[in-house]
Design goal:
- The protein is 45% helix and 12% strand.
- By secondary structure, it is an alpha+beta fold.
- The chain has 2 domains: 121 residues, 2-Layer Sandwich (Nonspecific Lipid-transfer Protein, Chain A), CATH 3.30.1050; 158 residues, Four Helix Bundle (Hemerythrin (Met), subunit A) (Up-down Bundle).
- The strands form 3 sheets. It has a 5-stranded mixed sheet.
- A hairpin with a 1-residue loop joins strand 3 and strand 4.
- Helix 3 runs parallel beside helix 6, helix 4 runs parallel beside helix 5 and helix 7 runs parallel beside helix 9.
- The protein starts with 20 loop residues before the first helix and ends in a 6-residue tail after the last helix.
Length: 307
């Protein structure tokens, strides 16, 4: 147990062995951070919940975050290593993100699974990476703008709509923009509205599905509370053996919130980066606080987010 409201301090507040970004990539296997989109295509599940933002807002974030990712790449050096996935350079990161944009654009265009993951999408092929990536963003935005958000569309399973891809791609490029800025030594900041929606996506979409690939780590319900946004989410262990974690929010009753064994609080941006493991141990200790069961809070932060 930790004192009520005190910051999580040092590595003792974190899963054993976590002391750097390099540890994070080991939590999802040798394939690295970029593989989760491809791995998630194997999952058939219920229809993902809608996001808190509307399609035009997601589109605006895709454009803005894409521009920031490109700016970080152009600042360089292109050979800079990505802290959360050290086998990648900035060049690899931008190429991956562009492929994912084009992959999603094709799904939106056809409403069907394209038959392979984003790694099957051709890369720049001799073209300059910067213009190719900018073209990838515009292709995605054009496809989304030309498609009814309610159009039935393949997502990570059946029963989804094109709107899903507006949300998913906004968070895809946001997290990778953070990667790019970390690679060149910046301290990334995420818009609170986008970050809060991103926490919701992790809790309600990514985490439950990813837990199907291995045993969950959650030991008790944990409340995630934003200090700069109204959102709060409850992450609970499976109701029965072999099940998946349950994520609810952002609007909770007081009774639901009170059922948590621990509360992890921070800005929406810091919570998002912690869940995606884009904060090193010393940053977690300074930027998040925990109330209640220390072990439960630690397990929630270490819960599997990607396959």
């Amino acid at each position: 147990m930790v004192a009520r409201g005190t910051p999580i301090r040092g590595s003792s507040a974190l899963p054993d062995g976590r002391g750097s970004f390099a540890h994070y990539s080991t939590l999802i296997g040798e394939s690295g951070w970029g593989s989760y989109v491809d791995a998630m295509t194997r999952i058939a599940d219920s229809v993902p919940p809608r996001g808190a933002l509307d399609p035009p807002t997601y589109a605006a974030f895709i454009r803005a975050e894409g521009a920031r990712l490109l700016a970080a790449y152009e600042t360089g050096p292109a050979s800079a290593r990505v802290p959360a996935c050290p086998e990648w350079t900035l060049t690899d990161l931008v190429a991956h993100t562009g492929r994912v944009h084009r992959w999603a654009a094709e799904i939106v265009r056809t409403s069907e699974f394209p038959g392979g993951g984003s790694d099957t999408v051709p890369g720049p092929d001799g073209s300059e990476l910067g213009p190719w990536y900018a073209e990838s963003v515009e292709l995605l935005l054009d496809r989304l703008a030309a498609t009814d958000p309610a159009q039935p569309t393949w997502v990570f399973g059946d029963g989804g709509t094109a709107e899903f891809w507006s949300r998913r791609q906004a968070h895809e490029v946001c997290v990778h923009r953070v990667d790019a800025e970390l690679a060149i030594g910046l301290r990334p900041v995420v818009d609170p509205d986008l970050a809060a929606d991103g926490v919701g996506e992790v809790v309600e979409v990514m985490m439950p599905r990813s837990q199907r690939f291995g045993p969950h780590r959650l030991v008790a319900p944990v409340l995630l509370r934003c200090t700069d946004h109204a959102g709060r989410w409850l992450v609970s262990p499976p109701a029965e053996p072999g099940g998946v974690p349950v994520g609810t929010g952002p609007a909770l009753t007081d009774a639901e919130a009170a059922s948590a064994a621990a509360t992890v609080a921070g800005t929406a941006g810091d919570l998002l980066l912690a869940l995606w493991r884009r904060l090193p141990a010393d940053e977690l200790g300074r930027r998040l606080t925990v109330e209640g069961d220390h072990a439960a809070a630690r397990a929630a932060l270490d819960a599997r987010v990607v396959p």
